[in-house]
Specification:
This protein is mainly beta. The chain contains 4 helices and 39 strands. It has a 6-stranded antiparallel beta sheet with strand order 8-5-10-3-12-13, with no helix packed on it.
């Protein structure tokens, strides 16, 4: 009883002094500000930053203060913390006054706690929380806007007087969440409570297990060490226990991403994924929003996007060695799925002028992903001496592809290579805005005269990864190199008109034949390029007719095929439901006779397997 009276007296004294009763404080934050990153321009500028607060578990709670983080205070001024029902209007390149609250403050190094003049009760509509300040050019902060290492939807909006002048910019996809904490109080705060914040939408194949992720968000004072949850998809349900490591602290808004394995579904279609957290730390979940939903779209054929890296280079180009190394490293790391194409200029491997390149090349070296994203074939999007192209390529591969690309090749004569593209769309459609393009590549090209020596501007240049040692520790010219991924012939700069037709029937491959005569694979000086037939490969590009961009691709060594490798895995007890045959032009063949046909087997679990067969 005595301790209770003392606590109450301390709380009253605190309130009388203008502070808050600490016993009622609830801290909300989306990420750990102990490990932070900064962004911003390194010049004099006024910043306005914000975050959307729309967590339904916070409805009815009161906001008492904002805690703002600055790396330095010198050179920072005009601090304003604010609340608004919407992002304040940008007028004459300046932010207008917020419509809920605005509180001035003096920026301090570390946490600056700004207490509101009047607490604000959070409604179901949610609100934007944010702050503004000015930075002088002389400030040591340099990048004064601090972010956490967590990313969530609507976690960071930015406007500034110089770089982002005319409107608010959603920085979520480019950066992390804003490092902003909120001090709250509430009447019904639970010890153990966790909600499902986001269930990711997925695309998958029928007949095989899939997975998705969901975010567990803490709404309790004890934090989250473990959860028990249930899942449901297509009438199939299950439950699992999961330990959260590292455990979420007792801070509202902290979240962890969890993976849930989903059972196979036989039929093609769109399905709702339901996730419900039933227990937290072994106790019944007291959260008001314990469930979340996502969508799974399942196909019989699920295209794998293999992004294509096209580099533009030449042996005369002293800065091109990094592209040489970049393609070799990518092929070493991803030998099955990486597709690199090297266009040479003004050397023995040149087969076209720069005007015939599929991209507008500003200089050498240059590189593009899927004829869409300009990048560097070694450093990617980084300006540092790092191997960054892998991250750029992986990101491109996450973009959905409209169709699967397969290739079958055969030598019809000693010097004639026939390549057949097989393009399989997962859904039927009335149009077909795509075409195919065939490219012949050679590995293992080498020569002994000076034209094959690679100019090297990296001699003695330190700080590069060890993969660059051949050049950083080499001379001004490096001899004896073996050049791979070199384009030596193609069907054209763009796609082949009429190579695909409409309408498109789902899961039925459309085929097109193209032949290369390797006797005609010559450089711009008329010299034959092929040195070893066994080192040749064919790439098939699926091109968007409107934009010329690469929508998908595949690659195979000449004389081989990817078709046998695309047998669609089936469940262990699946049998054959039906069989259909098509000729190599994709036309149905009711009674196939002598020749080569495509055999499409539909299994009892919905899986479709396609292969070439000889009758």
């Amino acid at each position: 009883m005595r301790q209770t009276l003392i606590s109450a007296l301390v709380a009253l004294l605190s309130l009388a002094a203008g502070g808050r009763a600490a016993a009622t404080d609830i801290l909300y934050s989306r990420g750990d500000s102990a490990t932070v990153m900064g962004t911003g321009a390194t010049k004099a500028e006024t910043y306005d930053v914000a975050q959307l607060l729309n967590d339904k578990a916070l409805v009815g709670m009161k906001i008492h203060a904002l805690r703002i983080t600055f790396p330095y205070a010198n050179g920072l001024s005009e601090g304003k913390a604010w609340l608004s029902t919407q992002l304040p209007t940008i007028k004459s390149q300046k932010m207008q006054a917020p419509d809920i609250a605005l509180q001035e403050f003096t920026p301090q190094k570390g946490y600056t706690e700004v207490v509101l003049a009047e607490p604000y009760t959070i409604t179901e509509a949610g609100l934007y929380i944010g702050y503004s300040f000015r930075m002088e050019a002389s400030s040591p902060a340099r990048k004064p806007v601090v972010m956490t290492k967590q990313t969530s939807e609507n976690g960071f909006f930015l406007h500034s007087s110089q770089v982002y002048r005319t409107a608010w910019h959603d920085m979520t996809s480019e950066y992390k969440d804003l490092a902003l904490q909120v001090v709250l109080s509430g009447d019904e705060v639970h010890e153990v409570a966790a909600g499902v914040n986001t269930v990711r939408n997925i695309e998958g194949r029928t007949g095989v297990a899939t997975s998705t992720t969901f975010d567990v968000i803490n709404h309790g004072t004890q934090g989250v060490r473990s959860i028990d949850y249930t899942y449901e998809i297509a009438g199939q349900t299950g439950s699992r226990h999961l330990n959260i490591s590292p455990a979420l602290p007792g801070i509202f808004g902290r979240s962890a991403t969890c993976t849930v394995q989903l059972p196979p579904v036989a039929e093609k279609g769109s399905y709702t994924i339901n996730i419900t957290i039933t227990k937290v730390n072994g106790q019944d979940n007291q959260d008001l929003t314990p469930s979340g939903q996502g969508t799974a779209i399942l196909y019989h054929t699920l295209p794998q996007h293999r992004a294509v890296l096209e580099e533009y280079t030449g042996t005369w180009c002293g800065y091109c060695p990094r592209g040489f190394v970049g393609l070799e490293e990518m092929n070493r790391l991803h030998p099955t799925d990486f597709i690199g194409i090297s266009y040479h200029n003004r050397d023995p491997m040149e087969i076209m002028s720069s005007g015939q390149f599929p991209n507008d090349v500003p200089g050498f070296p240059s590189a593009f992903i899927d004829r869409n994203v300009s990048t560097d074939a070694f450093s990617g999007n980084s300006s540092e001496k790092v191997f960054g192209i892998e991250a750029v390529w992986k990101k491109a591969c996450t973009v959905s592809a409209p169709a699967e690309v397969d290739i079958a090749t055969t030598w019809t004569e000693d010097s004639i290579l026939k390549a057949t593209s097989l393009i399989t769309f997962p859904i039927s459609r009335d149009d077909c805005p795509y075409e195919v393009c065939f490219i012949l590549l050679s590995d293992g090209l080498t020569g002994t005269d000076s034209r094959w020596q690679q100019a090297n501007n990296y001699r003695g240049d330190t700080g590069w990864p060890a993969s660059m040692n051949q050049f950083t520790q080499g001379g001004s010219y490096v001899s004896g190199l073996t050049y791979n991924f070199v384009i030596i012939a193609r069907s054209g700069k763009g796609g082949i008109e009429g190579s695909l037709s409409a309408p498109v029937e789902a899961d039925v491959p459309q085929t097109y034949d193209y032949s290369f005569d390797i006797r005609q694979a010559v450089n711009t000086s008329g010299e034959l390029i092929v040195q070893d037939k066994s080192q040749l490969s064919v790439v098939v590009l699926l091109l968007d007719k409107a934009t010329g961009r690469i929508a998908n691709a595949n690659k195979v060594r000449c004389g081989q095929s990817t078709v046998d490798a695309v047998d669609r895995p089936a469940s262990s007890n699946a049998g054959i439901h039906s069989v259909r045959y098509f000729d190599l032009q994709g036309r149905p063949a009711a009674q196939p006779r002598k020749g080569i046909f495509l055999k499409a087997e539909t299994l009892t679990d919905g899986t479709v397997r396609t292969r070439r067969v000889k009758m």
